[in-house]
Task: structure prediction
Amino acid sequence: MGRKSSYSFLSLIFISFATSVLGHGTYHELIEEVDNELALRPNDSTLLTRRAFIHVEHEDWKTALVDLERALRSGANESDLSYLRGRALASGGLHEAAREELDRYIATHADAGMARLERARVLSKLGVHEASLNDYRAFLKASTQMEPEFVIETAEAMAAQGLHDEALSVLASGIKQIGNVPQLVLKALEFELTAGRFDASLERVEAIQKVMPRPEPWMAKRAAILTQAGRPDAAKAAWTTLRDHLLALPNLERGSHAMSRLLEEAQQALKPLPQQTITIISKP
Result:
């Protein structure tokens, strides 16, 4: 039986992914839609592969493998199926087998970015950390449009291996390309604070505060950083500014849950430290 593919496999994957992510149907609705088409064309390898992809996204890896085998028997190109097979096997914890499938896919496809990301995860599970990081690097380098979660995943993988400077560089590059996405900024702040880079953290907070619709959470973050940095006078001034700002808000805004919590945090931070009681023990 021939193994000639009549479609762009990666295009199929991303179209299916976009369909599910954009809310055009739940898992069961998407499966039903493909099932209805398969009732008319039961040996359509494209439909079988699409259904396998939906199963993989739903982490039903065993059912996905069954559909991938059916797609292969219906004429799909075996190396084209290796990416999804690798994902399914990885989902089932069969990491060595998943690595073999992903190796096959990457060796035969130039546009293997997502496969490199998946292999990076698999290699990490197998403890092959340097190769895993190389795949993460290759994935980001080949990405035409970075996604925040992938940037964070890569940075965390690097930090886990002690590459804190490179992790911060990845986050900084992501922020430069994507913008001041809060989840990226917060992760960069986390790493900078761990490294004691307080000035860099303060600059980052100031930059994002200017573009966010509500400055108050970032005002609190700045005050907390100054506290952590051991700058009590600057911290007190920052907490005072936040408290006064919150008290000046209209009642409806000030009474919201988020603003109430920030006000409580500021007031708590401005409470004087309790006086230490000194007990003098007289000598007998």
